[in-house]
Amino acid sequence: MNPLLCPKPGYAAHERLPWRNVLAPMEGVGHPAFRHAIAAQGGLDLVCTEFVRVTSAPMNPELIRRAIQPSPGLALSVQVMGNVAERMAEAARYVSEAGATVIDVNLGCPMPRIVKKGVGAAMLRQPELLFDVLSQMREASPGLLSAKIRAGFDDAEHVLEIARTVQRAGVDFISVHPRRRADFYSGVADWRIVALLARELDVPVIGNGDLWYAESALRLQAETRCAALMIGRPAIRNPWIFRQLSELRAGRAPFEPTPLDLLEYLHGTVDRYVPVFRHVRGQGVLGKLKELCTFVSRGILGGAEFLTQVRRTQSLDEFRGVSERYLAALPSERLDLAAEPRHGLERVGTAHSNEAAARTA
Ligand SMILES: Cc1cc2nc3c(=O)[nH]c(=O)nc-3n(C[C@H](O)[C@H](O)[C@H](O)COP(=O)(O)O)c2cc1C
User: What CATH number should be reported for the domain whose range is 13-249?
Assistant: First the structure.
C-alpha cells in the first residue's frame, strides 16, 4: 500500500483515505476561481482539476503548471486524459514533481469528440491499453495515482473486471461515476455499482453521481461503505453541500443557507471571476456566471424565472442588480438547499432499485 495513504495496518479499504469530501473534476467549470469559491464555503478535503489532455505530442509542462493551483489548505488532484503510455507517464512525473497530491486518470468522459480519439470512456473498452498506460504511470511516479471510471461503455456487466484491471496496474484508489458511457447524464446514478466495487476491491473506492443532498449522500455512503464522496453538479447548485456533510458527520446541525447567503456567494463569485476571465476571449465573466446560474437556479423552487432574468443581463452591474432584487425578495422556504430534500427538486442516486429513484423524483 502507498505509504502516502493512511498507513495503519489492518484498516479496511474504506478507512484508509485521508479525505471524505471531494470536489469532482468538471471541464469548463472546474477552473481555479470556481474551485476556490467552493472551497471557501468549507467542508471540502480534496479538490480535482478538470482534465489536462495529454496527446502523442511532447508534453507542455506549462499546461500542468496552470492546473496546479491548490485551494488554500486543501489537497489537489490533477486529472489527465490520454492513451499514449509514455506521454502519460511523463505527465505523472510532472504532476507529482509540481506538487499535486494526486494524479488522476480520466476513464469516463463520454463526449463524442473525446471518445472518437480513443480516450476518456473509450479506454474502458481497451483493458490491455488501459493496463499499460496506468502501469507505466505507476512506474514513473511514486506519488498517489488514481483513476476515475464510469460503469462501462455500452453495458455495466464488466465493471468489476475493469476496476480490477485498474487496481492491478497499481492505482491507490478508484473513483466511480456509476453510469455507462451510453447514459451520458440520463437516468439516475446506480449506487449498487459503488457498493459492488467497495465490497470487492482492495483499494479505497470513492462514490460519485447524483448526490444532491448531504443527508442522502451520507446514507448512500453508509450503505455502500465507500471511502469518500465525490460531488460535482450538486456543488455548483449548492456550494454549502460539503460544509453540510462535515457538520452532519460531526453530529452538528447542518448549515441552512438563506437567499441572502446565496446572494453574498454570487456577488463574491463575481469578484473572484472578474480578474480571471476579464481578458479571456469567448464568453467572458458574464457568460461564466450565467453558466453557473443554470445550476444555482435549480436550488430554487420556481428558479426558472431567476435563470431567465439572469440570462437577459448584459453587464455585470445588471447581473448584480437582478440577483439582488430577486434573492432579496425570495422567501427562504423557496430555497431547496437544506441538507435534506425538503422540496426534492433533484433525483438522488440509488443503491436499491429504480423504483426507489422514482420515489425521490
Ligand atoms: C460540465 C461537466 C464537466 C465534466 N468534466 C469532467 C472531467 O473533466 N473529468 C471527469 O472525470 N469527469 C468530468 N465530469 C463528470 C463529473 O466529474 C461527475 O462524474 C458527474 O458530473 C457525476 O457527478 P455529479 O452528479 O456529482 O455531478 C464532468 C461533468 C460535468 C457536468
Answer: 3.20.20.70
